[in-house]
Write a structure and sequence with these properties.
Blueprint: E1 5-9, E2 24-25, E3 28-29, H1 30-39, E4 45-50, H2 53-58, E5 65-68, H3 76-87, E6 94-97, H4 107-120, E7 124-130, H5 134-138, E8 144-147, E9 153-157, H6 165-168, E10 181-190, H7 191-199, H8 204-209, H9 213-218, E11 223-227, H10 239-250
Helix pairs in contact: 3-7
Subcellular location: Cytoplasm; Membrane
Catalytic activity: 3-deoxy-alpha-D-manno-oct-2-ulosonate + CTP = CMP-3-deoxy-beta-D-manno-octulosonate + diphosphate
Organism: Succinatimonas hippei (strain DSM 22608 / JCM 16073 / KCTC 15190 / YIT 12066)
């Protein structure tokens, strides 16, 4: 398999959880735990893309590259695009974007998504897992994805897709008649793809669903989607998520 690097964007001033990268997860700052998980993968380098000196300081002694990016980045992809310019990465560099709020990410998933990108020769690769809980299909916080016969994304949505016409029209839905898949927010792409994406305007679909990956589909780029039966535990967006992750680590 070709070499790849991991980029971990981390924003200090999170709206819902201020100072999120420094939140205690299992006795250490969350950003440190994410980096340590990424270092267990086969990546040749792990780069933390941060925006605050306090976040950089807690990574002292951790064998990662720390890149200070600006406070103006609107999303993690913007932060990685800025890092590519600062570090002058080769356009063909394969990058796996691991979210800075996924302290329980499995190294195997990082390797899998990098391999998928190369094997499928796609513009981007990502992962999903089959949904078993009916409630998740109707939860806008659970992003769904549908794929074609070759495993390439057709669409991502916060709404139920596919929509089971006969089933979902009932007063109460107790079971699913077709397969539904939950998108896992880990991405692999080449540096040149990120810069190309970054240079394009937001599409109407991206704005409507608030999903970055829809910009790639809007401009005709391909997204390979792999199915895993070992999805990561919940990421950390809120105080409740933080409590849940720490409870999992204690157990």
């Amino acid at each position: 398999m070709s070499e790849y690097i991991v980029a971990i964007p981390a924003r200090y001033a999170s709206t819902r959880l201020p100072g999120k990268p420094l939140c205690d997860v299992g006795g250490m700052p969350m950003i440190k735990r994410v980096c340590l998980q990424a270092l267990k993968s086969n990546a040749k380098e792990v780069i933390a893309c941060v925006d605050d000196k306090r976040v950089e300081d807690v990574l002292d002694g951790v064998p990662v590259t720390v890149c200070q990016t600006s406070l103006d980045c609107k999303c993690g992809t913007d932060r990685i695009a800025e890092m590519i310019g600062i570090l002058k990465l080769d356009p063909e560099t394969v990058i796996v974007n691991v979210q800075g709020d996924e302290p329980l990410i499995e190294p195997e998933l990082i390797d899998n998504v990098a391999k998928l990108l190369i094997d499928k020769n796609a513009d981007m690769a990502t992962l999903c897992a089959k949904i078993d809980n009916v409630k998740d299909v109707f939860d806008p916080g659970c992003v769904k994805v549908v794929m074609d016969k070759d495993g390439f994304a057709l669409y991502f949505s916060r709404c139920p897709i596919p929509y089971e016409r006969e089933n979902f029209g009932k007063d109460e839905v107790t079971e699913l008649q077709y397969d539904h898949y939950h998108h896992i927010g880990i991405y692999a792409y080449k540096a040149k793809t990120i810069l190309d994406y970054h240079s394009k305007p937001q599409s109407m679909l991206e704005k409507s669903e608030s999903l970055e990956q829809l910009r790639l589909l809007h401009f005709g780029m391909s997204i390979a989607v792999g199915i895993t039966d070992r999805p990561p535990e919940t990421g950390v967006d809120t105080e409740a998520d933080l409590l849940r992750v720490n409870d999992i680590l204690r157990k």
